[in-house]
Amino acid sequence: MSAPALTADADRLVITGARVPSGDALSVLLDGRRIWSVRAPRPDDGALVIEWPAALSERFTGRARLAVEHAGREIAAGTVAFDDGSDFDLCEPGTGIPQVVNKWGRIARSFEGRDAALIEHVLDEAEHLIDALRRTVGVELFVTGGTLLGPVRNGRIMAHDDDADLAYLSAHTNPSDVVLESFRIERALVDQGYEVVRHSSGHLQLMFPGGTVTDHFYLDIFTYFECDGWFYGTFHARERADTVTVHPLKPLSVNGRMLPGPAEPAQLLAAIYGPSWEVPDPTFTFVTPPAAFRRYYWWLNHFDVDRENWEDHHRSEIEGGPALVPSGLAVATAAQLPPSSTVLDLGCGLGADARYLAERGHRVLAVDYSRPALAWAQEHLARDDDAVLFERVNLTMARHALHLRRRCAELDGTVHVHANHLFNALSPLGWDTTLLLIKHLLATPGSRAFLEVGVAGAEGSASWTEYQPVDWTRFQEQLRRYSLSAEEQHDELQDDDGAGPAISRRVLVRRETA
């Protein structure tokens, strides 16, 4: 019998001649480094055909030395060529830090192979945060998630983890009060100098930047609460409250230091990871029960759709040297604006359009929620005359949209809106907040909104949840809902990527009058 063989392209990995029980864990190695773990599928005509995670598939380029291990033994290996590029290496753009496919299917860092001092730094900051919130708002944080799982198993942070997970049990049982408490905590953290990213009304992430466009690490703060006899552990767990005992907190050894843990760690871990939590599973993924998902979405919502994907995308652009070519929409907008106009650029990215408009005598307020994009644009494109300003705004959050409305009111004169493919990237919640913002801005006589949306063909990335073609009928209905209408439509035929022609529709939006 011939030895197992490995072949691959950007879509799938194929192993022939290997006998692996379906459901067993396989590890995929790149140049000897584990980058992904997956369950073996049922053989297809004698071959194991494994679809790559979309986030990894879109990164593949050049040549790569791949190997697959089963039960700690290499079963197949080979060099594959994805295209004519140079050797492929899965590293973070801008830093070169090795990356892996995490349990969310995203490309991310891990602690594995990193300097041990980094983990100690993470735990130092976790201790400081625990003390800070106890003193300032009376909230008792404790370790949870992977930061609880590893220490309960063997006393140490898991090597393939990439952050520290902390949580608190809310004193409230009404979801509205739980949300208000989370925002009070966020304000207290910002007052203490933390950079906070809000994923939902029950999940905060504290960022510790490692450079202009990179992060050294981050800490998660999850909100846990009880409601109507059920325990909810944001973002996933929903169990009967009498089966999960959190208080009183008790010390837990984490890499040799004592941090607060839940009263019954095994109960909480079973709620988060299921009854088999004690058995290591490198292929573990979260499957949120529908009853929990409905409640988390409607009670706590989700404000951070695809931000991490966009930040990775922008880091990659920055590493490659941004070309900063203005979009066709920016060129068309500049030709129609009155001289010395004020423009709000929504979803500005690295700022190519904002710079183009500013160079033509317009004043631009450019906003995005991608932190590395804004950091780079502020460093390289901001001007002393304030002709172009960059600010972070999350358009899925109503309070950010309200803040942006106030900022526009501070600017002199009429404010025009520019948004290039923004609605291809926004979640439904983002559509509502953005269209409401545009409606208010267009209430000023003479103001206009210049929008471009992809309405057919491939848009963005298959691994991104929301970046996709816009249904034109639905878009028009949403415009009418906010007393807006699309005029002067112009279609642009983009390059065909094999999935059908891509059509980008450029429109001028006005506010309808009664």
If you had to describe this structure to a student in words, what would you say it looks like?
The chain has helices spanning 54-57, 116-137, 145-154, 175-191, 265-273, 290-300, 307-320, 328-336, 352-359, 371-380, 398-410, 422-425, 428-441, 472-481, and strands spanning 5-8, 12-16, 25-30, 33-39, 47-51, 63-70, 73-81, 100-101, 107-108, 142-143, 164-169, 195-200, 203-209, 215-227, 230-233, 237-240, 250-254, 257-261, 342-346, 363-368, 388-392, 415-420, 449-456, 484-493, 503-511. It has 514 residues and is an alpha+beta fold. It folds into three domains: 5-90, Immunoglobulin-like, CATH 2.60.40; 116-300, Beta Polymerase, domain 2 (2-Layer Sandwich), CATH 3.30.460; 308-511, Rossmann fold (3-Layer(aba) Sandwich). Strands 10, 11, 12, 13, 14, 15 and 16 form a seven-stranded mixed sheet that branches. Strands 21-20-19-22-23-25-24 form a seven-stranded mixed sheet, sandwiched between helices. Helix 7 (307-320) packs parallel to helix 10 (371-380) and helix 11 packs parallel to helix 13 (428-441). The chain is globular and about 65 Å long. It starts with a strand and ends with a strand. One of its GO terms (molecular function) is methyltransferase activity. This is Class I SAM-dependent methyltransferase. Residues 343-392 form the Methyltransferase domain.
Low-confidence region ranges: none
- By CATH reckoning, the class of the largest domain would read Alpha Beta
Q: Can you tell me the number of structural domains? A: 3
CATH architecture of the largest domain: 3-Layer(aba) Sandwich
Strand content: 25-35%
Structural class: alpha+beta
Number of helices: 14
